[in-house]
Request: fold
Amino acid sequence: MHLAIVSTLPPSLGTLTEYGQHLVQAFAEKTSISKISVLTDQTVLPETLAIPRTEIHRIWRFNDPLNPIKIMQKLRQLKPDAVLFNLQFATFGSGHFAAASGLSTPALARASGFPSIVLLHNLMDTIDLQQAGFASSALLEQIIRGAGHILTRVLLQSHRLAVTMPEYQQILQNKYAAKNVFHAPHGTFAKRQAKPLPLQRTILTFGKFGTYKKLEPLIEAHQQLLDHDTNLRLVIAGTDSPNAAGYLASLKERYANAQQIEYTGYVPEEAVPDLFENSSVVAFPYVATTGSSGVLHQAGEFARAAVMPAIGDLEGLVKSEGYQAEFFTADDVSSLRDALWRVLSDREYATKLGLDNQKASSGLLISEVADLYLAQFAHLQMQQKQVRYGY
Reply:
């Protein structure tokens, strides 16, 4: 099979880049795949990836409303046997028109005869749009939800639509009467041996910040915790969200006098293991959620405890996949501070939480998730042959 994958990839600063890389690598290991063509976004950073049997085509740009045209032109040129789209609602842009036009591409691919599957990492129906920073008023929220409903139906025009959480499958089947949806778990990138916690206590937060991932409460909680441990480090790893340019720069200026804080900036994939293994706990300073958390799966992969608010998809992920966490009230500095200290002050407890999370994360590797997609593509190809040859 010649498989085309539409996804962001490192060193892009867009969303789902790390997941996209691991997904492509998982498919590249499959003997049934002869070639992979990745149609990905352009970046100002040098190309860093070299994956066996994989060609990377950087042909589309974030916030470009012409992305569907560029992607479809490339697909017609490449003539793949199947197409997989690795998406969330803001993959193609922060502007409503660019984001919406990009999400029409899977339906166009199906209409052009390509067996097409969408992996959708979030649902508009479950996002608190005002808390997540996507709507500034109740009226705008209603407008965006209406548009999200239409776009969900557009995405359902692909041959199959995969979701990472069983709750999403239920919503799509019950609310949209969808018959072509299946659950494909997020998957863990690798199985690893648990490393001991570092001697120096370190709080890690990792992601793309500035919309619903708010760092102010975490920084203030950390500064208060320095009264307990003057050597306690806070590592802020990652970049601005594509929808919040300049957020981290403004944060550094506002907290210029804060102590024991390290900003790593963009983290290349090869540096991720050291990042987690040198942490004591992973903090999730979220005020809303927009899908299954890749960072929580990584915390489990590296056997690290999590401190998070009991909200939305985070709470659902803990319940459905067996993760453990110390919970706090979202956007509450004192609640976050106390939750962090309950973990940091008890090394045995932190270790147990981490091992519990590693056990939860080891249920399904991303290489096994890739097999789920290959089975779906095989079924689609069989259906096409039946239609073509009349049997």
